[in-house]
Design a protein that fits this description.
By secondary structure, the chain is α/β, with parallel strands linked by helices. The protein is built from seven helices and ten strands. The chain has a single domain, classed as TIM Barrel (Alpha-Beta Barrel), CATH 3.20.20.140. The site of one zinc ion has 6 residues, from loops.
Length: about 210
């Protein structure tokens, strides 16, 4: 079964402008099947999302997540409901996420000015690579894609939305056998995903000017 997921979203639990409620509303309207709220160094956005979806019985799956600021750059982690300390080595962060039963994806690699990892050794240790980030320049997404294939890693995409209106601009299409947390994580880890999306560079630049 093919499911559509935006696996990189920020809420006002970190530097995003929108509430978790607003993000979920847009995601449901845009018919996404799965979202991950990946706030910087906190799972609180994800925990709130899990609660809202459960309480209101909404037709969307929350894959809990976080974007960890490691010493070598930003690292996305899915399937974790505990914070991972910022500033530690990426290798250590990957190990901790694994022990928590989660899956890692290298966030917007090569985007050195947005704390994307630039070292190739980082590609070796992660489970997946974010090969489409809606806020990245095409050249960086292409480079990420090239090295993702070379290191034979799973593929993820995300909007990296900091406002609800951009939710769904980056979509990971995941081929899952069963729609459970385990099923989704397993599919990501075993490379059963593809990516699509549109970049929001112009919208992003304009929003900075406002
Ligand atoms: Zn980032
Ligand atoms: Zn981000």
């Amino acid at each position: 079964m093919l499911l559509k997921a935006d696996l990189h979203i920020h809420s006002n639990h970190s530097d995003g402008k929108s509430s978790v409620k607003e993000i979920i509303k847009v995601a449901v309207e845009r018919k996404l099947d799965i979202i991950s709220i990946t706030d910087h160094n906190t799972v609180n956005g994800s925990l709130e999302a899990l609660e809202i979806v459960r309480e209101e019985n909404l037709p969307i799956v929350i894959l809990p997540g976080i974007e960890i600021s490691t010493a070598q750059g930003h690292l996305l982690a899915f399937g974790v409901t505990k914070d991972v300390e910022a500033g530690i080595e990426m290798g250590e962060a990957v190990q901790i996420v694994r022990e928590l039963g989660g899956v890692t994806s290298l966030a917007h690699p090569f985007q050195f000015y947005r704390h994307g990892a630039v070292r190739l050794c980082c590609f070796e240790i992660v489970d997946c690579v974010e090969v489409f980030n809606a806020k990245s320049l095409g050249i960086f997404n292409k480079l990420s894609d090239f090295f993702c294939r070379r290191f034979e890693k799973g593929r993820t995409a995300g909007s990296d939305a900091h406002k609800a209106e951009f939710v769904g601009y980056g979509v990971t299409v995941i081929d899952v056998n069963d729609v459970s947390l385990d099923g989704i994580l397993k599919a990501l880890k075993s490379g059963k995903s593809e990516v699509k999306g549109k970049t929001v560079m112009l919208g992003h630049i304009l929003s900075k000017l406002r």
